[in-house]
Amino acid sequence: MRRNFPLNTVDAFLVTAKHLNLTRAAKELCLTQGAVSRKISTLEEWLGYSLFDRHARGLHLTPQGNALLPEMQHAFEHLLSVANNACLKSRVIRLKAPTCAMRWLVPKLVQLESAAPDIQVELTTTVEHGVNFKNESYDAAIIFGQPDNGGTLLFEECLTPVISQHLLPDEPLTADILSRYTFLHPTRDRTDWSLWLAQNTDITPVMHKNQHFDTMDLAISAAIQGFGIAIADVTLVAEDLRRGRLVQPFASSVKTGACYRLSLRPGNENDAGLESFKAGLLTLSL
After folding, report:
1. Cα–Cα distances in Å, from 103 out to 68, 77, 108, 156, 194?
2. Cα–Cα distance measured from residue 99 to residue 122, given in angstroms and rounded to the nearest whole number
3. Rounded distance, CA 203 to CA 172, Å?
4. Hey, which residues does 53 pair with through a beta bridge?
């Protein structure tokens, strides 16, 4: 039974064949001349023929060595390419994101998986709106809050009412008709609805019935189920509007001053994998 192929000798053969000089080959491989010579001898023993002729002025490839060289070079380069690709594919980006961003983020991740299969994302959701990279092992985080100098802007929060199609009356929504609905609030206070109504003073409904949620995503889901009328970010409900799960009864919207930003772990801003991930989030459309 033949012994296993001595794979660790291939680099010695290829480098020596390139230089035809043991001294230069040993220097490139960071080995002694004796170690290089022993590797070549091991390969020759396994093959059953000599690869080099030793002459006073240096080395020459034997006919068998000359015939083997291009095939061995091709095989070795292919092996390095496979190993390099496997290394790249094994990279996982650990992403932290608030649950309120899921309606926007998940379709993006689906598209990103198709467009860039080498990018793998390990997603952790949270009700928190920030990240502490010193104490948390994330590569990137989506942060919601007031704009500052950190991170890359993904989109600004812009609010508008949304409602299920089957709850929408045939006639235009007036203050009296709106007052009959349950108002769905994405927070425990009523600041989002108050902000929009303050910019639309011609509409002054009375909020007789109210339902408060811990996140905007929950309020949006309740609106889709026909629970009432919600105030929601236009970017977060873009897919729901496109698919007809929700309708936007008023054309007006109002910016809150808050935004969603992508923050990368300090020191990793030039990481190729993170840069590709960031580019995907910024360029892929819903």
Report:
1. 57, 44, 9, 15, 23
2. 15
3. 12
4. 60
At residue 26, the 3 state secondary structure works out as helix
Q: Which two tokens stand for residue 170?
A: 């045939």
Sign of dihedral through CA atoms 128, 131, 136, 142? positive
> Residue 106 is encoded by which pair of tokens?
């998940």
| pLDDT > 70? residue 165 | yes
> What pLDDT score was predicted for residue 193?
94
230, 186 contact by CB (below 8 A): yes
Strand spans (E) along 219-253:
229-233
Residue that is written with structure tokens 């009523």 in the block: 190
Share in percent of the chain as helix, strand, coil (round to 5): 45, 25, 35
φ/ψ of residue 265, rounded to 5: -55, 130
pTM given for the model: 0.65
What percent of the chain has a predicted confidence (pLDDT) above 90?
Answer: 48
Q: What is the DSSP string of 47-110?
A: HTS-SEEEETTEEEE-HHHHHHHHHHHHHHHHHHHHHHHHHHHT-EEEEEEEGGGHHHHHHHHH
And the tokens for 212? 């408060």
pLDDT at 183: 96
Question: Quick one: which of 122, 119, 126, 123 has its CA closest to 143?
Answer: 126
Contacts of 185 (CB under 8 A, 6+ apart): 192, 193, 210, 211, 212, 213, 219, 231
Q: What is the pLDDT of residue 138?
A: 87
Closest CA to 260 of 55, 90, 103: 103
Arithmetic mean of pLDDT, 161-172: 91
